[in-house]
Amino acid sequence: MAFAQAKRYTEEDYYNLPEDIRAELIEGNLIYNQAAPSRIHQTILGELYTVIHNHIKLKGGICRVYPAPFAVKLRENGNTIVEPDISVICDRSKLTERGCTGAPDWIIEIVSPGNPSHDYIFKLNLYADAGVREYWIVDPARQSVFVYYLEQGSFHVEAYTFHDRIKANIYGDLYIDFAELEI
After folding, report:
1. CB under 8 Å, gap of 24 or more: what pairs does 88-92 form?
2. Contact, 95 vs 103, CB < 8 A?
3. Pairing of strands 29-32, 86-89
4. How many other C-beta atoms are found inside a 10 Å radius of the C-beta of residue 91?
5. Given the DSSP bridges, would you call strands 99-101 and 71-73 parallel, antiparallel or unpaired?
6. Whether this model's pTM surpasses 0.85
7. 148-157 pLDDT, tens per residue?
8. Of 3, 29, 68, 151, which has the highest C-beta tally within 10 A?
9. Which residue in 76, 20, 58 sits closest to 173, CA to CA?
10. Where is 26: in which H helix or E strand?
């Protein structure tokens, strides 16, 4: 007896979704983002984007910062496309008309209350395997920030609160003071 197999979606399927549908393609599976982000989620995203963007611009840096929705194809095979809340890409050859191909240098995810394990476990492993140099998990409910920094093939982690001043490891001189953000 033959068993039905789940459909494996492709990069083409992902890019053919209607514009009003937000989803990620994870190892050939479409994962739909059903709920709209909360006000606090969007406030944090806006504050972090502004600080990072202004720092890069002030320093004349080559990196580019993109808020969601922004497609990041983690691998050339095209079966994993994510939309991190914030992506920082320093190798501009990775940028395409559709987004980014390859691992961004820095990704920030803001935890949604309905599915925290997605960011804490699943995406942590996904980003580590892809070679993301720095990954921040910002959790509004816990007012915490976990900073993972890839060093010699493994992530090192530091835990912070919304009262701390946090160094961005991919830059020598960028600190984000969460106490000063208008959250």
Report:
1. 88/52, 88/63, 88/64, 88/170, 89/63, 89/64, 90/61, 90/62, 90/63, 90/64, 90/170, 92/62, 92/64
2. no
3. unpaired
4. 14
5. parallel
6. yes
7. 998 877 779 9
8. 68
9. 58
10. strand 23-26
